[in-house]
Hints:
The complex is a heterodimer.
Chain A: H1 3-14, H2 17-35, H3 41-48, H4 57-82, H5 91-104, H6 106-130, H7 132-140, H8 144-160, H9 166-180, E1 183-184, E2 191-192, H10 206-225, H11 244-249, H12 251-264, H13 271-286, H14 298-322, H15 328-339, H16 347-351, H17 353-384, H18 389-408, H19 411-429, H20 435-457, H21 464-467, H22 469-498
Antiparallel strand pairs in A: 1-2
Chain B: H1 2-25, E1 36-39, H2 46-62, E2 68-70, H3 77-85, E3 92-97, H4 98-105, E4 116-125, E5 128-132, H5 140-149, E6 155-158, H6 164-174, E7 180-183, H7 187-195, E8 201-204, H8 210-214, E9 218-223, E10 249-256, H9 261-276, H10 278-286, H11 296-316
Parallel strand pairs in B: 1-2, 1-3, 6-7, 6-8
Antiparallel strand pairs in B: 3-10, 4-10, 5-8, 5-9
Helix pairs in contact in B: 2-9, 4-11
Amino acid sequence: MDALAGFGQGIWIALQPLNLAVMVVGVLVGVIAGALPGISFVNAMAIALPFTYFMSPLLAMLFLGGIYVGGVFGGSISSLLVNIPGDPDSLPSCWDGYPITQREGPERSLSIAITASAVGGLFSALLLSFASPPFAKFALSFDQPEFFAATFLGLVSVLAIAKGNLLMSLVSLFTGIVLGSIGTDPLYGVSRLTFGVPILDNGIDFVVVMIGIFAIGEVLDALAARQAAGFAPKHKARMRVLRPRELWALRGSVARGTGIGSVIGIIPGAGAAVGALVAYGIERQVNPRRREFGTGVADGLAAPEASKNATTGTALIPLLTLGIPGSAAAAIMLAALTLHGVQPGPLLYTKSPDMLYAIFASFTLANLFMIVISVLVARGFATLMRADPTIICAFILVFSLVGAFGVRNNIADVYICIAFGILGFYMKRFGFPTAPLVLGVILGPLAEGYFLTSMANYANDLTIFFTRPKSGVLMALAFGFILWALRPELGRLVQRLRR
Amino acid sequence: MMRITIARAVVMAAACISVVPLAAHAQGKFPSRPIDMIVNFGPGGGADQIGRAMAKIMEPILGVPVPVANVAGASGNAGLTKVLTSTPDGYTIGTMTGLTISAWASGLGKMQIPDFSYIAIGQSSPSMLFVPAASRFKDYKALLDEAKANPGKIRVATAGYGTLDDIAVKFLGTQGFPMVNVPFAKPGERYASPLGGHSEVLFEEPGDVVQFLESKQYRPLVVFAPKRHPSFPDTPASAEFGQHIDLPNWRGVVASAKVPAEALATLRAAAARALDSPEWKKLCAETYSCIDRMSPEQTLKFVVQNSADVTRFMKEYGMVK
């Protein structure tokens, strides 16, 4: 079938009332789950999975796809309104987004975020619709060294957010990496750093750490400060799509974010969190206003927002075109499809092109509906935030603990989450940067796995990371970051040597 | 359509209301409340599939809901810990896989086979080697020849060290065909690696790569078993090459060994009926994992035998920690 005709047909199928309604409900569930600190969208998709058994495979995909698209954006709502990331991928949105909220009100930051996210998401959905086969080939050319290099770039991006506090950030980052290596190691099955404590055998999940440090830590901080105004945004959280002129002013950061996100989306395991982080890090190097980053620069919010939603469409390309689930979200969609006896992969193009194009089309539409639904959810969320802070704190605490339990249905995760909440509180009090720690927990285990598999695959040849072209480019970027971050120190060293 | 749904909802609601006093009346009878099915791996995998499908088919047979919860981690031990630590009244059952028992054999955790009652084994799926459609290896012999000529050059994408995959690669090494084990933590990455030309061979059970087999992206080379698999009559068994190794991936449903005999008998009867259902037959056929139904004694014997086989290889190859 001709791609354009197929897409037109797909739009028609996607607009059938039942299909449309299921997709819209999915987006709504996703945005709400994303916005609630503690409940992640992957969580929501796993909970939604059994409900899809009663649906047709198409409806199941529309529902889960809606949650995915909505959820990846939804996390930013709480990032921007209360400075608590609703999902790991919304963490970079806090750094420049929340200062914008504080200075100019939530309307400005939310509008930038939704517009950038929608642009990134739409572009990615169109890539999925029209460029899947070539993009899938591109995806297959990536191997473990490339994945390692991309993850390494993400780790190095932490330097970009160090805000002049390089040593502390590095200590925090490496602490995170060590915490991430606790538990049964994924390749050898050996217990590491568990000190014989059984609840640590399962390892420390990064979502649990994130909920603990940001959500519970924030609540403890608010309670300790007895700060009544802590959460309540002073303005009504209206949001809208940016005017073309305003968007044009952000064209550089949105375009870079979209490009980065589209490529990172095809890397399995990395997903939206790494996409947003790398986009922020790169933006911080190349933006003309890079020195002001962290104080509320619009580009610093637009880039990660565009990037994280740009991962959503391309993450589905390996799943639908090759049958390879690229992320946790895609794995859940694979489960939904196979349960109905539908095998994703190249055969979809010949066997059920109608369904495939309907999925493409509704994924594209979901990015548009995301705007409308997010406006409503953000408004509701902002209204809730005007309640008594103690009540809000209580709710955040409940959602956090439920969310921590829900990650793996494991009570140990609740205790770990509380421990990290207390740690987060003290880190915040002592001005110790928390974000690098969480990023270490997220990226450390990924980097380890990619590194070990690369070594096994290429006869323990360390130069493989530099001699493979794509991996070489990523590593060069990463080392560029390192030099850039160390520039002040290096400058001083050169001066001292001259003397 | 809408009206039918509402009507059905009303009927169901009425049924629920009428069932409540009955349920209260039948306190002594098993089961009188929902039975938790703990899937010991995350959503989307093989254990998830058997757990959810069994739960769905057993629900009407048992007459109570069977909600599914995924408790993943530690090679499946986290979920089983939950099965063992819940009150042993038969209201908590869980999935069990050969993979988990081989993890015990390698020294992980402290669980043992007699800690569980084996309700049923629903699937047993062969271990196979696959190559991408365009691979230079026309057949298994071509692969073996090249492995012999270039020792340690052919890369096999596997699920990790200490697994059945690892045993198979080590076994081939001892037979004079050394290849490299390239471990992948995530299945998706493992399937992508040979397809992208980054490694040569994939070790997997066919049920997990149905999508690739149907689309002819991968083709099977050999099955590690005494004889050919009925679904792959053209794929040789390793025994035909003098390689006597049998590595089935089995999956089943278990409960704590402390569950009273009466409840266990009810669960076993329900599971047996579920395994005979056309829905189950269809699912196992689609995943190439059908297995003859076994009595409780045969089931236990099968588990013990499989574990002994795996342990023997692990000891031989120094994989026991």
